[in-house]
Amino acid sequence: MRFTDTPELATWRERVRAFIAEHWTPGDSHDELATHGPNAAAYEEINDKTRQWLDKLAANAWIAPAWPKEYGGADMSVLKQFVLNQELHEAGAPTSRPMMNLVGPTIMLHGNAEQKAEHLPPLLRGETRWCQGFSEPGAGSDLASLQTRAVRDGDDYIINGQKIWTSGAHRAQWMFMMARTDPAAPKHRGISYLLLPMSSPGITVRPLMNMADGHSFNEVFFEDVRVPLRNRIGEENRGWYVGATTLDFERSNISRAIHSRKSIAKLVDYTRGRAASGHAVPAGYRHEIVDRAIETAVVEQLSFVIVSIQASGGVPNKEASMCKMFGSELAQRIALTEMHVTSMAGQLRVSPLLEVHGLSPAMAYLSVIPQTIAAGSSEIQRNIIATRGLGLPRG
Question: 92 in helix, strand or coil?
Fold first, then answer.
């Protein structure tokens, strides 16, 4: 695992930094939203400035850098893509369009030529927004237990059932989803992966508000919704393995480590300011900040492990689970430390600390609660680490 850039990567990093300095203004709304997590802005309405920035990235073939050039990508190497993402996150700049890094690579890997031509260009241009129809009331961490049915009827599937925690469904034009097409098959084998327009008759979207009064989640109901067979990705009843690709892409990123490091830096500045004014933060809480800083360095190294595996042609599995689990649990610990360090002022939802120090501890604390559940719960990640990493028996 390399900790320094090769000469080629160093030149590339400088080029990226120059592009950011020319086109991105720090302190935009994306930075404010990032107070509540690295993906908080993904389901919000995109403002004009952010849209113009994403269009510039797309014009430079950097919004989907690993995609083939024929679909608007740059055929970029894993390491160059990693450096690009590092620098974008360091600058607080948006890196891609909502859901693009989930559904885009999945269609790229498993879709046919017609599906790629239909969906990838408008996704790249920001003309379509997507949501993920995976979780159900009785199938969250145990996703293979999903019960939403897709019954074949001529050239269509007819879908009935319910999805829940569907991020961004209220803004999406399309959904990528998994539905059960063979109820008699073992639960992992009777599932198909489908794409459907959210404007289809029979779809009802209802909002779910989170504890921070934010609306990103929804529940979605399907009543005799017709989806053409041509909208299936991959083979019938093999959708679990297509869906697993989507989840693998979701778990491998550097953004969480950088966001955690920025949060620690803000806490350090706040603590120093308190000491300079004669109101030092108690030693126990200062020690908490040190612990969080060490843990942030660990999660950053886990991200380096993942990209090193990818760069050598491997596919991170247990390593991605380690990074996701440790990083999401660390986000919760950092938010709790923010609450401890800032005391009563940090308990306000609209905190004066935000404008002066960039801290919003109460909102951060409320927002990070779901992070150990979303994209695979910590329990699921520990199972993966135990069985695939340590070789422990199942059951």
Answer: coil
Token pair of 115, please?
A: 């599906």
Confidence category of residue 243, pLDDT binned at 50, 70, 90: confident
pLDDT band at 38 (very low <50, low <70, confident <90, very high): very low
Length of the chain: 395
Stretch 357-363: mean pLDDT, rounded? 88
Nearest to 384 by CA among 260, 251, 291: 251
CA-CA-CA-CA torsion for 71, 72, 73, 75, nearest 10 degrees? 60
Structure confidence by residue, pLDDT tens digits, 119-135: 998 998 888 999 999 99
List the domains of the chain with CATH numbers: 7-96 (1.10.540.10), 130-237 (2.40.110.10), 251-389 (1.20.140.10)
Alpha helices in the chain (DSSP H): 7-23, 29-33, 48-59, 78-90, 100-110, 113-125, 239-250, 255-276, 283-311, 318-342, 353-357, 361-368, 378-384
pLDDT of 44 higher than 70: no
DSSP secondary structure string, 129-151? -EEEE--BTTBSSSGGG---EEE
pLDDT attached to residue 43? 46
Nearby residues of 261 by Cβ (< 8 Å), 6 or more positions away: 296, 300
Helix orientation angle between 100-110 and 239-250, rounded to the nearest 10 degrees = 140
What's the pLDDT score for residue 209? Answer: 84
Beta bridge partner(s), residue 219: 206
Three-class DSSP category at 3: coil
**Rounded CA separation 353/49 (Å):** 26
pTM of the model: 0.80
